[in-house]
Amino acid sequence: MSNNGKMTLEIFRYHPETDAEPRYQSYEVPYNEDWVVLDAINWIKDHMDGSVTYRWSCRMGVCGSCGMMVNGEPKLTCAAFLKDYYPGAVRVDPLVNFPVERDLLISMDGFMEKLEAVKPYIIRDDVNDTSEGEYRQSPAELARYKQFSMCINCMLCYSACPVVGHEEEFLGPAALALGHRYNKDSRDQGQSERMEVMLSNEAMWGCTFVGECSVVCPKHVDPAGAIQQAKAAGAQEYFKSFVMPRSS
Amino acid sequence: MSHATTHQHDVVIIGGGGAGLRAAIAIAEENPSFSVACVSKVYPMRSHTVTAEGGAAAVIKPNDSLEDHIYDTISGADWLADQDAVEYFVNRAPSEMIQLEHWGCPWSRMADGSVAVRPFGGMKIERTWFAADKTGFHMLHSLFQTTLKYGNIVRYDEHFASKLLLDDEGRCRGCAAIELRTGTVRAILGKSVIICTGGAGKAFPFTTNGAIKTGDGMAMAYHAGVALKDMEFIQYHPTGLPGTGILITEASRGEGGILVNKDGYRYLQDYDLGEALDVSDPRHPQKRAMELGPRDKLSQCFIKEKNAGRTIKTKDGDAVHLDLRHLGAAKIDKRIPFVRELARSYAGIDPVHQPIPVRPVVHYVMGGIDVDSNSATNIPGLYAAGECACVSINGANRLGSNSLTELLVFGAQAGTHAARFAMDKPDYDVSGLEAQAADEGERIRRTWFRTRTRSGSERIAVLRNELHDAMEDGAGIYRDADSLDAACEKIAELRDRYRKVVLDDHTNSFNTELTAALELSSLLDVAEAMAHSARERTESRGSHQRLDHPDRNDDDFLAHTLAFRADGGGAPRIEYRPVTITKWPPGERTYGADSGLKRPADEPGEAGEPGEPGEPS
Amino acid sequence: MSGQYHRPHRWAWWTERPGYMRFMIRELTSVFMAGYLVVFVLTLAKVGAGEALAGATPGTIEDVLFGSPHPFAEWIAEMRSPGWMAAHAVALAAAVWHAVTFFGAVPQAMPIFLGEKRLPAPVAMIVMGYGPWLTVTAVILWWVLR
């Protein structure tokens, strides 16, 4: 029941020290049309139940901490407005496809390993000294990878990806898009090194192009597009290896 | 809280934001055999550096000069900056920025492929590098991703450092930190320590700062006996969204946005900030004038307009309008797309068609942990860098786009010096430090896992809200003796009541209510230093404006305030240290027509616009 | 130790989002297309057989495939039955739908840049998908109908 300036939040609760199974707990919060779901959860923590556990920080959609399932949809809770759900109830779950640590807080261990796996940094044979000035990069060259550099690591795409749900080892949308971002950077020379990881079975060939990662991405990174582009580049690399067998 | 476990490294860095990560890379690269611990209460990419928008200043273009950047910084600081430190900072800035470019930061570019720069407040020429209007985000992620290259950087993500550990010689050798997943208190030891924990904007109600900016590192150093320096200097950013305090970057004014009051009048011209050139005038936006004046002055003008009844009433209080409509959709989408996104989401306004209501919001703490120009504190082996530190290059008012550069320059420098210390003084007694960490764990358990039997228990949020009100009312943009007395008194009362806080949650795993309690303790420490430092400084300078002492007083206060924590808490001991003046004697701070800084390069058609920096929308 | 809670596997995951359902339909179209290809290969075989193999030795594969004296004509007659017509209509719909979704994905998978501007998706779809498709179709039609 949500009326008279009140709204109901059903929150997924699980405590590793006391619970074998999760449950939902309902809280009635004041309804404020400017509030986002995160504000309502903060209100619960501040005034009703200090034990509700979740992550948050910037409240402006850029730190990537506060991703949760809001009525089954992966969302940044700082960008999900109560007014879009009112007067209905809002059910908040931890992001799916991740193990739950406690309440709305999921384990990021696997995600961090996957990010690291794609070697997300500039790899070069010849490193210039800073005294030689910046590497030149035209606006057109910047445009080739800029979109893929906008990922805030909020992991909503992992919750939207059925492959992630089925294969724990799958590198997943954000990590693959990040690898592609560096491959497309005109300053980088590490594509072949990175491709060794990205061409493995658990990497981009695991993607079946469902495409929902790009639908839920709050920053329009389009990881699905990045992965298909990487596949094309990978196929090229593969065929090149027949034409020009490892000589260098 | 279970017993302590011990982890040994060469250098321990507390904080995984821009400064901490830059320090980690400096150490890892210069000392490949070193093991560097990076302890952070959040995953590094969540650190607040991520929200910085407008850009980072460094002299790179031929029409600019190091001398000009130094002068802008010193005059912007109202002469409270240490000039040797500013010189070091400005000289190091270009190579640090190029280094970050080499590490992959996607800077916006000119047609010729060189980095683009934009004008910023208080800077006499455009020298602010930018990555559209997500500069901090790109810098942080570039730094974080680069750290993944180094096998000798060991991250302790989601570890809440609560205490510095000092050896028998009084040298800092690590910290006690709660591993949030298990609640275990770990002794994370090193031969030297760097604090990079950011600012403390969360002492105030309206702030651009994220939830994590609670001054923990400042408080830790304060407890260990380091002074907090110049804490009375709090920067209000003139353009935040009312209600939420979300930042609308200064770059929106750098690109030509204007501020108007309820009559549509560009009120800044009434406050010695120059002439209101028409927005179609090719000289608009004029550097060091009007909307590109420094933040302290612009925020003060807002209050004067409000007092004159010329601000706009909104449901979230008074505001003025930031008008970007004349820039057009194409420019807004190319240069400041995040502004449009934020205004649409959080204010329900499309800046292409409507002006954005804005008000000053707490943004940055100029003061911080007292360090010298080598980033060293008075405790051997303890260093600090970034917003948590006060070198000071920011003095009484930081210029926009100097802080992102600061975290690179001084992050790297702190790393280098901490590594050197670790090499020179490698030996310490592990067991003594372990015992301290175990005591800390025991202290936390005893204090916070007690049952709700005592009468008159307090809630964290209630105390935090009262602290916010006390700071806003007492130590806001304008202060006086009465308001500051009231703030000091209120903080003392809150300290008392803090002892009665009882937690709902007495479990170990991810006890975020416990961390909120520890954060509130940090905020009380920091707020106490702020309010007392402000009360003792009986002059007005930069962001510290005393209604009862409206003039700058160089005879008595060309000096840094040092607040030392009193044993057992209570009012801090206040001391002063003279500002280092090298070549720029204190002068009058002028902006607008009087700034006397016209130069050919300011004119369009010269170096000002050699092709639009390309930025895909 | 791991006190982490792993939520149960969701076997009906594809019912959870319209996007998942669209994905499953797209994948299913390939079944119809594979079926059609089998029929098409058989048709080609009948064409190749013509009348020449009429009266093949009983028990051989030719007998099974082309046991009748007029295999192609009979095959075609069989194909004209309502059941087969319907099957072909379904296969055609599946192929068209697959093509549409394929062309829809082209701009994502193969972006075209003109300087720093990316070709808008609808234009890219026409340039790389519908344009060539319609051209080839027109050429084939012209060749068949001329």
Oligomeric state of the chains?
Answer: heterotrimer
CATH fold-type name of the domain at 238-361 in chain B: Flavocytochrome C3, Chain A, domain 1
- Number of separate helices of chain B: 15
Radius of gyration of chain A: 21 Å
Most extensive chain-chain interface: A-B, 64 and 68 residues
General form of chain A: elongated
The sequence of SSEs of chain A as H and E is EEHEEEEEHHHHHHHH
- Briefly note the structural class of the backbone of chain B: alpha/beta
Largest sheet data of chain A: 5 strands, mixed
Average residue-wise pLDDT of chain B: 94
Word description of this protein:
The complex is a heterotrimer of chains A (248), B (617) and C (146). Helix content of chain A is 33%, strand content 13%. Chain A has helices at residues 37-48, 109-117, 139-145, 156-160, 162-166, 173-183, 191-198, 212-216, 223-243; strands spanning 6-13, 23-30, 67-70, 73-76, 90-93, 100-102, 105-106. Chain A has a 5-stranded mixed beta sheet. In chain A, strands 6-7 form a two-stranded antiparallel ribbon. In chain A, helix 6 (173-183) packs antiparallel against helix 7 (191-198). The longest helix of chain A has 21 residues, at 223-243. The mean pLDDT of chain A is 94. In chain B, the strands form 6 sheets. In chain B, strands 7-3-2-11-19 form a 5-stranded parallel beta sheet, sandwiched between helices. In chain B, strands 20-18-12-23-24 form a 5-stranded mixed beta sheet. Chain B has a domain at 238-361: Flavocytochrome C3, Chain A, domain 1 (Alpha-Beta Complex). Chain B is an alpha/beta fold and 617 residues long. By secondary structure, chain C is mostly helical. Chain C has a domain at 13-109: 3 helical TM bundles of succinate and fumarate reductases, CATH 1.20.1300.10. Chain C is built from 5 helices and 2 strands, in the order H-H-H-H-E-E-H. Chain C has helices at 18-49, 61-66, 71-79, 82-109, 121-145, and strands at 113-114, 117-118. In chain C, a hairpin with a 2-residue loop joins strand 1 and strand 2 (117-118). Chain C starts with 17 loop residues before the first helix and ends with a helix. The mean pLDDT of chain C is 86. Classes of the chains: A alpha+beta (248), B alpha/beta (617), C mainly alpha (146). Chains in contact: A-B, A-C, B-C. At the A-B interface, helix 1, helix 2 and helix 3 of A face helix 3, helix 4, helix 9 and helix 14 of B.
